[in-house]
Design the sequence.
């Protein structure tokens, strides 16, 4: 079954649709012919989702994911067949400051969604976990067999959501699985506290990029289009003949080419054609983050046939090409405000 045949006229619920990943997920689902329902709690007219006009191409259901009757009603009303669950508190720093609200969003939101999937009987549900759920391991890269050993609020919330997802698959037969991805980047991410958009913005505006840490943190950075392809491939398999076999499993998505924050920053500066020296703040202990993390994706390659198509350089070039007109338009709007 081809991707086009699978998604044509399929009823798909996307939570977190107006976020960075959710926007590109929705865009690709529409391109493949799916009928998308976007569950939206807080509408942002300045989001990339709104700028792309996606709200006019999907059904927008307004409400909070933690409201059980609402989620179940939305699924039943629109005959949802596939769920892509992305809604979460996704900023590590914000989670550190407000653990309780993060646990509500990331943990309660997940069990409410899966309970609705069980009741309504959806065909497939992909839940976003994170490579951060693994916590710290000496051995690298992390594989799906590693124990989840979270310590801080964000990674703990993701590990809990991860285990709840596995519970619903094994206990109730819900065809659901989790994704554990490296750091996702690409055009449309306007949260400049993240290293890629923040560095691109600084470089394009001829300002010294700021590195909050000492620059030695090592991570895997993966282009958003490759992650979208991974999610949709997993959803297809869950809804297909092999769905029962992979339900309850986790799948890593990464590039196997981790780099340090400092290396990444210098690469972005070079690709923008600038001559800038980053400002290194040197805060490592305060950030409460693991020094080195990256995942192996052999399982996704073997079972799903997935491999990333973009090298780091290719993905960064595409990202810079998106931010250049975006920042110009922002500056123009500010001047004429």
Sequence:
């Amino acid at each position: 079954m081809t991707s086009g045949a699978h998604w044509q006229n399929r009823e798909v619920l996307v939570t977190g649709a107006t976020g960075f990943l959710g926007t590109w997920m929705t865009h690709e689902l529409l391109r493949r012919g799916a009928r998308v329902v976007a569950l939206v709690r807080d509408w942002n007219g300045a989001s990339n989702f709104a700028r792309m006009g996606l709200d006019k191409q999907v059904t927008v259901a307004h409400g909070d994911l933690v409201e059980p009757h609402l989620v179940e009603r939305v699924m039943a009303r629109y005959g949802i067949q596939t769920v892509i669950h992305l809604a979460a508190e996704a900023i590590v720093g914000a989670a550190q400051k407000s653990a309780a609200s993060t646990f509500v969003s990331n943990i309660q939101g997940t069990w409410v969604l899966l309970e609705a999937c069980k009741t309504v009987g959806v065909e497939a549900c992909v839940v976003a976990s994170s490579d951060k759920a693994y916590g710290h391991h000496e051995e690298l890269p992390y594989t799906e067999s590693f124990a989840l050993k979270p310590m801080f609020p964000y990674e703990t919330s993701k590990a809990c959501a991860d285990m709840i997802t596995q519970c619903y698959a094994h206990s109730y037969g819900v065809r659901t699985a989790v994704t554990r991805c490296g750091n996702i980047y690409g055009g449309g991410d306007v949260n400049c506290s993240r290293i890629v958009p923040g560095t691109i913005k600084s470089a394009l505006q001829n300002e010294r990029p700021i590195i909050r840490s000492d620059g030695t943190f090592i991570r895997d950075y993966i282009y958003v289009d490759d992650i979208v392809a991974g999610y949709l491939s997993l959803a297809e398999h869950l809804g297909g003949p092999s769905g029962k076999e992979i339900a309850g499993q986790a799948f890593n998505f990464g590039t196997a080419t981790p780099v340090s924050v400092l290396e990444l920053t210098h690469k972005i500066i070079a690709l923008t054609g600038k001559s800038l020296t980053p400002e290194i703040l040197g805060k490592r202990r305060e950030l409460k983050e693991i020094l080195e993390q990256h995942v192996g994706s052999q399982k996704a390659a073997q079972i799903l046939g997935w491999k990333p198509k973009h090298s780091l350089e290719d993905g960064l070039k595409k990202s810079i090409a998106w931010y250049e007109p975006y920042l110009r338009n922002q500056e123009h709007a500010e001047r004429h405000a």
Q: What stands out?
A: The mean pLDDT is 93.
